[in-house]
Structures are given as structure tokens and as C-alpha cells.
Amino acid sequence: MKNERDMSQERNAPWYSARALFAPTRPGIGRIIVWWEVRRIAYNLILLPTGFVGLLLLLLVMQSNPSDDLGAENDFVPFLSALMAFIAANVCYTLGWMVNIIAWLAWGERARLLGPVLWLLGTILSILGSFAPAFLEWITR
Hints:
Layout: H1 4-12, H2 18-21, H3 29-63, H4 77-107, H5 114-129, H6 132-139
């Protein structure tokens, strides 16, 4: 069990600090949702630059084969792919707090550390997913 001083430090830590990002979820459906939604800011701040790099890689792969006739009608495809990947990542993010709530309802206090673990794994998978359009374009060429 944590003492009151440790819990106070977690509550007062800035949202962008590692202490706050990986603090265990507190019991209660509303608290779990708030825990996840506060961290969505950091999640999106991580995904935006990686998504931009993924978009640049996609454009690079598309331009690497100049014999293909992309045509003007396909000029928006890379941007649409990046946008869809970003939307899919945020939908999956929402599933994270839903799983966290179900685990809390099923296991109670034993599910306290599930939120930080899901957040970290989901963020890593989303970073990898931001490169998926470029990778798919590369393997289909």
C-alpha cells in the first residue's frame, strides 16, 4: 500500500511527467476514464510526430518507383492513409480504457496496474502502426 505522501505526489505531478503517466489507475469507472483521457494528450503528442515521419516514409516509398503512374486522383491517398491510421489509433485508445474498466469490475484492486501497462503497450503498438501505410505500400510494390 502507498502512504498518503506518495499518493499526494502522484496527484500533484504534472500530467506529462513519467510519475503521472505511469501512476496506477484509481478505482471507479469515472476515475479510470479520466485517467485515460488525461493521458490521451501525451499519447497524441507522441503520435503526431511519428505519424508525420510515417507519412514522409509513405511519400518516399510512393516516389521510389517513378514508372508507376500515380495520377492526380491518387495524390491524396498518403494523407488519407495517415489520417485513417491516426483515427484508428485513437479508437483503439478508447478500447484501452474500456478494457481497463472491465478488468476493474472483474478483478477490483488487482487491476490497478493494468492501465499503465495497457497505455504503454498501446502507445508502442500505435507508434509501429503509424508506419503501417508506408510498410504496406513498400511490400506491395
